[in-house]
Amino acid sequence: MKGLVNRSFLSALREQPRSWPRCGLADRPAVPYAQNPGNVAGMSQLNIAIIGAGIAGLTAARALQGFGFKPVVYEQAPVLGEVGAGLTVSPNATHVLNAIGLEGALERIGMCPERGGVKHWKTGELLVEISRGNEMREKYGAAYYQVHRADLHRELADLVVTTDEQAIRTNHSFKGLEQDSDGVTLFFEKGHSARADVVIGADGVRSRVREQLFGKDTPRFTGYMAFRGLVPFAHLPAGTIEPSSCLSTGPGRSFTRYLIRGGSLVNFVGLTERDDWREEGWSIRATIKEMLDEYSGWYEGVRTIIAATPPDGLFKWALFDREPLPEWTRGRVTLIGDAAHPMLPFLGQGAAMGIEDGMVVARAFAAADSVDEALRRYVEARLPRANWVMLESRKTALNYHSGREENFKPGKHVSAESLGLMAYNPAAVPV
Ligand SMILES: Cc1cc2nc3c(=O)[nH]c(=O)nc-3n(C[C@H](O)[C@H](O)[C@H](O)COP(=O)(O)OP(=O)(O)OC[C@H]3O[C@@H](n4cnc5c(N)ncnc54)[C@H](O)[C@@H]3O)c2cc1C
Predict the structure, then answer these.
(1) Which of 57, 333, 409, 420 has a CA 20 to 30 Å removed from the CA of 205?
(2) How far, in Å, is the centroid of ligand 1 from the Cα of 78?
(3) H and E: helices and strands count for the chain
(4) How close is the Cα of 159 to the center of ligand 1, in Å?
(5) Strand pairing partners for 69?
């Protein structure tokens, strides 16, 4: 199938190694997070500013607090509210959230599916079965969760503010920065400014911090778009949500659905291809007819879920990404999360990579004797992995939407787990 995806973004895939490059720091002692809180010697007075209170920025803030730092997070939104829908927290990210104090919260807000699977787009036949639940816990030492983004975001924000009630400054839209030999001056819309020793840009896919560091590089529309909806479980016929976490792939389309909020809601994301659409935002309404038309010919289970979506509960957005950066730091300023490596959602690793960054950047500051050293340790430990996952997400997009039979063969299906991404503990890897 020809497909509508932006072919220019495929060129980088030619150089892609088969597995993610280890960071080459194995000679450094890997001091796990839990074993050295407060051990930050002369660096503890460092004034660290984080731009953006998303999942990555808040994880970094909390991990830094765990070492005795007092970071300040500047967020453009006037209030931190209920936005987004489902997110996957795979074991590589769960390690971090457990270490920073969210273990109980994850058990409360997260669904930990026992089984997952891959279904054929047309027949609905379950062709690949995936064990999750306890098997994941035993294999990786941390569970696999599916959560509402708003719930995880709230828990993280509460934890950060409980530790330091001044830590998050809302209504601070970052505009620009100036660096000198002692630090960084931050400028915000509405005329505020602030001073910091170090700045971590966690301001998402349209990062202004990134633009300040590396110049304007407009995110590109990839040719993929996403429909997102939440359906009350009780509105669906018995047996529709079986197994509880499921991916269906077919030519030019895929459809992922799983349970969140104690099983009361079915979260779904339908990924399709378009060449004529550029609207941005997380809250653009879509109609049920529009989505049903996209999924005509698909098995009844998918169409039943789409049709059951409350009319005001279906949204769509275009998927943008950028080329991987060869460096994330300039002087005293670095990037984490989507600001550093926005990625397509096909491996379900976007939030996980930001969470991994948050822990590793904090551990780098705890381990280093200078700002330069900390930022170098962070980038060396994180950039090869995150850039690899970014490109691998593009490959997976092509693979899933190719309609190839390979996707339905047990042992051949590509996923974050088959790529080895879950066997990584950011709270203990060498930094
Ligand atoms: C509103 C919203 C809803 C989302 N919903 C989903 C979802 O349903 N499912 C899913 O898989 N992913 C969702 N995501 C994306 C997902 O959270 C991220 O891809 C991933 O968690 C990486 O997080 P991040 O912290 O790097 O970036 P983001 O989550 O994008 O967070 C960036 C933060 O920076 C703030 N910010 C941006 N610019 C500035 C500025 N100039 N000054 C100050 N602050 C700034 C933003 O308001 C935001 O709080 C959503 C993101 C957002 C912002």
Answers:
(1) 420
(2) 14
(3) 10, 18
(4) 18
(5) none
Could you tell me if 206 and 236 lie in one domain? no
Residues 12 and 94 in one domain: yes
pLDDT at 35: 45
Q: Does the pLDDT value for residue 273 go beyond 70?
A: yes
Q: How many CB atoms lie within 10 A of CB 335?
A: 30
Statement to judge: residues 280 and 306 lie in one domain: yes
Catalytic residue (one of 74, 145, 224, 258) = 258
Assigned domain for 373 exists = yes
Q: Which residues line ligand 1 (CB under 6 A)?
A: 51-57, 74-77, 83-85, 87, 149, 173-174, 202-204, 208, 228, 282, 337-339, 345, 350-351, 354
What predicted TM-score, i.e. pTM, was given to this entire model?
0.92
CA of 204 to the centre of ligand 1 (A): 5
424 is catalytic: no
Q: Is 247's pLDDT higher than 80?
A: yes
- Beta strand 265-273 with 174-179: parallel, antiparallel or unpaired? unpaired
Is 34 contained in some domain? Answer: yes
Alpha carbon 391 to its chain centroid, in Å, reads: 14
Q: Per the structure block, which two tokens stand in for 195?
A: 């001073």
- Buried b / exposed e over 359-371, threshold 16 CB at 10 Å, is bbbbbbbbbbeeb
- In this structure, of 49-53, 298-302, 313-317, 408-412, the range with the lowest mean pLDDT score is 408-412
Pair 159, 103: CB distance under 8 Å: no
Which CATH number does the domain housing residue 374 bear? 3.50.50.60
Confidence tier at 42 by pLDDT (50, 70, 90): low
Q: What DSSP string runs through 255-267?
A: EEEEEEGGGTEEE
pLDDT, tens digit (0-9, with 9 covering 90-100), for 113-135: 888 899 999 999 998 888 888 88
The whole-number pLDDT of residue 2 equals: 42
Adjacent-strand bridge partners of 258:
245, 267
Position 122, amino acid: K
